Amino acid sequence: xxxxxxxxxxxxxxxxxxxxxxxxxxxxxxxxxxxxxxxxxxxxxxxxxxxxxxxxxxxxxxxxxxxxxxxxxxxxxxxxxxxxxxxxxxxxxxxxxxxxxxxxxxxxxxxxxxxxxxxxxxxxxxxxxxxxxxxxxxxxxxxxxxxxxxxxxxxxxxxxxxxxxxxxxxxxxxxxxxxxxxxxxxxxxxxxxxxxxxxxxxxxxxxxxxxxxxxxxxxxxxxxxxxxxxxxxxxx
Length: 236
Description:
This protein has 236 residues and is an alpha+beta fold. It has helices at residues 3-36, 42-49, 118-127, 175-179, and strands at 57-59, 71-78, 81-86, 94-96, 108-111, 130-140, 152-154, 195-202, 212-215, 224-229, 232-235. Strands 1, 2, 3, 4, 6, 8, 10 and 11 form an 8-stranded antiparallel β-sheet that branches. Strands 5-9-7 form a 3-stranded antiparallel β-sheet, with no helix packed on it.
């Protein structure tokens, strides 16, 4: 082999080595950029590196450089589906008792403040196929509906909810009233001095998340209740 051929072959090998090294550098750079990119959902969080259900993660539901700013959520997995959880200040079981002489409707009021501003929460809801939020009222001589609504919840855009968890929008009922497993609209409408409960998931996306809880009929002796509102849970 001539000196010229040997030199050409050496140059080709050097070029291949340089190309291979450059491709490796570009590959490593893409991996680094992907790792630095804020995930758009809990699905991406789980796909990248797994998750810890107790941890908090930052996601950008409508993508980078547009719409709402990145937000803090928790992630979990149901079956093989990654779900997004957004908490708030009213998750604890809370006593309801408003002293007074008149059994007024909605006398008790509790504002619900979520971890993120409403535009961010609604961005997650809009990107999801299903969202739900559990609402529960434990009652003792305290009605939800008894000819008039004594208790209700408020939608994300300020409307008075006209149904309870587990029932359909516009039904004016709780889950048991819709299924026919109680004599009235709700278990609490028995309005006696026995502890009862009405609970279920609110799952109409146009109404979520809950922004306020209202209760009444807790002014007399023995009339009281406890409310519990779960995290907003959204599915991809």
